[in-house]
Design brief:
Two copies of one chain form a homodimer. Chain A is an alpha+beta fold. Chain A contains seven helices and four strands. In chain A, strands 2-1-3-4 form a four-stranded mixed β-sheet. In chain A, β3 (about 75) and β4 form a beta hairpin. In chain A, α1 runs antiparallel to α6, α4 (about 105-135) runs parallel beside α6 and α5 (about 155-175) crosses α7. The longest helix of chain A is centred in the middle third of the chain and has 27 residues, at about 105-135.
């Protein structure tokens, strides 16, 4: 961990201010986990504030004033600006701290990483989310994060489970041909897929034994120190 | 339109090859529309190939060989690499042709644009998609794009409609305070929101009269020449 190195990003062409920041976080939730792994891979430490999602702290007036969408993570800059989408938070740190590059190097490479990141999020991560949020007893009436209440849809939980099974098969085919999700280097697309696979395991959606390539990949990325972030 | 200027991206620090490319497109679908507007704003022309989604051409063996996910857009480079997520395709062109910047300038600015782009996609665009795909008579058994068939879920269509109404209200509150979705400049977040509002209108989800700020914004961005791309 580099400590406050984030305050002096010498490499960045766009970023000229020395600004402090903090990260609203919740250790047990998959979305902030994506950011924590990303920061660990960069060797960046950012002060965090825990928001107890299980206790409903995200729905309190105090937290709504920070993020009306009632979600974590939130990255708050000292100038008052806040961003809450994981990809946006990671992009900020990628630009401020280009090394090690986790979002690709040249243009085509960056586009391929973005392609895989977004595809894994859409086909894998949200499918797990559908399966989880539409069936967990503790989320009755709360099938979506955010300020609005939506009833669980059992058919959507079932569809989510079916999609996750297809997702595992697709990833296994892809990883037969290369070491990491987006090519021969570890990137943010691996972080997205790792968090997806581990999130799925929490609702008993395990990678089948037959998916040997996906299992080989998972063992490798899950063994990196960043996986414990 | 700058014609073949895309073959010589002098501004780009990462991109060194002169590579040709083509874009698989379908005029009537909202996802390729996002790319076409982006290219029009940049003044870039790329050769396109129409894929007749209504006629099922995306499910033919010929197109599956191009994109096993059976979706458009697809950007194909002459070296054989292909990318199919809209955000990845736009990122490629942003890096190859930085001006005019549609994804922000400095690091924090870029992160804020990414934040809004992703949020509008998640809360708005996919909610419209849920409403549309789970109710359109022509999409029975095809509630998701892609190679796999999923039955429509009427409750998900209904939830989608409710979410779109909330999305309009949220956007109206946000646009009360600024000219464009992510700040004082037109960006990819405006493209995402414009395509979302127009897609919603096709299934009779109209922006309420009371949402005066959202309507003012929509009128402005929908009047740009790029909106016809």
């Amino acid at each position: 961990m580099v400590g406050p190195s984030w305050a002096r990003p010498e490499h960045d062409n766009w970023w000229r201010e020395d600004i402090a920041m903090k990260l609203y976080d919740y250790t047990l939730a998959p979305n902030p986990k994506r950011v924590r792994i990303f920061l660990a891979e960069k060797g960046i430490t950012v002060p965090t504030v825990q928001v107890d999602l299980r206790g409903g702290e995200q729905l309190t007036p105090k937290f709504r004033a920070i993020n009306p969408e009632c979600t974590v993570p939130v990255l708050e800059f000292d100038n008052g600006r806040r961003i809450a989408e994981v990809i946006a938070i990671c992009l900020y740190f990628e630009l401020a701290h280009p090394e090690p590059a986790l979002m690709g190097s040249r243009a085509q490479d960056k586009a391929i990483v973005a392609d895989w990141h977004h595809r894994v999020e859409r086909q894998g991560f949200w499918a797990v989310g559908d399966a989880f949020r539409n069936s967990a007893p503790g989320l009755k009436g709360r099938a979506l994060p955010g300020p609005d209440d939506y009833e669980q849809i059992p058919a959507l939980a079932e569809r989510g489970r079916a999609r996750v099974a297809r997702f595992f098969e697709m990833m296994d085919r892809e990883l037969a041909g290369r070491e990491y999700v987006a090519g021969d280097r570890y990137t943010i697309a691996d972080i997205m897929a790792l968090v997806t696979v581990n999130f799925a395991a929490r609702i008993d959606l395990k990678v089948p034994e037959a998916c040997v390539h996906l299992r080989r990949w998972h063992q490798a990325v899950n063994a990196r120190p960043s996986a414990d972030a």
